[in-house]
Amino acid sequence: MNKNIAIMGCGWLGFSLAKSLIHQGFTIFGTTTSEDKIPMLQTVGITPYKISISEKGLNGPITTLLEDAETLIINIPPKLRGSNPENYIKKMEHLCGALKKSKVKKVVFVSSTSVYGNDQGVVTDDILPKPTTASGKQLLASEKLFLALPNIETTIIRFGGLIGKDRHPITMLSGKKGLRNGNHPVNLIHLEDCIGIIESILKKQWWGEIFNAAFPLHPTKKDYYQRMANQKGLIYPEYDENSSLSGKIVDSSRLIHVKKYVFKTSILP
Predict the structure, then answer these.
(1) Residues 87, 78: Cα–Cα separation, whole Å
(2) Where do the structural domains in the chain lie, given as residue ranges?
(3) CATH H superfamily, domain 4-164+189-216+249-258
(4) pLDDT, block means (10 residues), the chain with 269 residues
(5) What's the predicted TM-score (pTM) here?
(6) Which of 67, 73, 148, 216 is at a distance of 20 to 30 A from 230, taking alpha carbons?
(7) Helix 134-147 and helix 88-100, axial crossing angle in degrees, nearest 10
(8) Nearest one of 130, 134, 108 to 120, comparing CA atoms
(9) How far apart are CA 206 and CA 130, in angstroms?
């Protein structure tokens, strides 16, 4: 197993993943779009590169980043909110172009369960996704770009909503009223399991696969977020009583039953 790993996007997940891999003896090359973050990456042992991707192309030493890495982990979420949404697919096309010219042989592409529509019910990782959101549609199209790369084995991870010690949706939802879809199930995953699954892919050579990754417990949003508000001493969020009963449940059976991955951290306190 090659221990030189490049991580595109050392944000909340990428930075924590890099620290864990370095602790286990991996050499990590990581990217940031901010000059200010470079010292922080260096402090934990990441070899930093300032690289940004836009619809117009790549800006920064992408060739240097990729020349010593056999594996690339791509952790760049779409930015589609606000008045100036980006063309995420175009950005990923530029990255694919750089990969075709590199020596990279393995890719992990961090996607999202938003590739499934809310009306799809129980979704396994081998059913046809039918995204309804802009981010879901662009992520699904981007997945296909990486899966089609010649001479590169790509594994896709479709993570549910990411939570951790310092990150939880209840902090944003607390005290809000008139929220919709309170009867929809939650599909969440803890940061520790995001890292654990990516590390399993690297160490156990799970290449050329697609994985759903959400903790196998799916209470309704109303019940779950009221419970979390109670646990954290926050004001309950209030949901409309007329919420629909539909919603998707992300089934991670392939990880659990085929790959025997054991989730480390519950989404419940």
Answers:
(1) 8
(2) 4-164+189-216+249-258
(3) NAD(P)-binding Rossmann-like Domain (3.40.50.720)
(4) 91 97 96 95 97 95 94 92 82 97 96 94 94 94 97 97 94 94 95 98 97 97 95 94 81 97 95
(5) 0.95
(6) 216
(7) 10
(8) 130
(9) 25
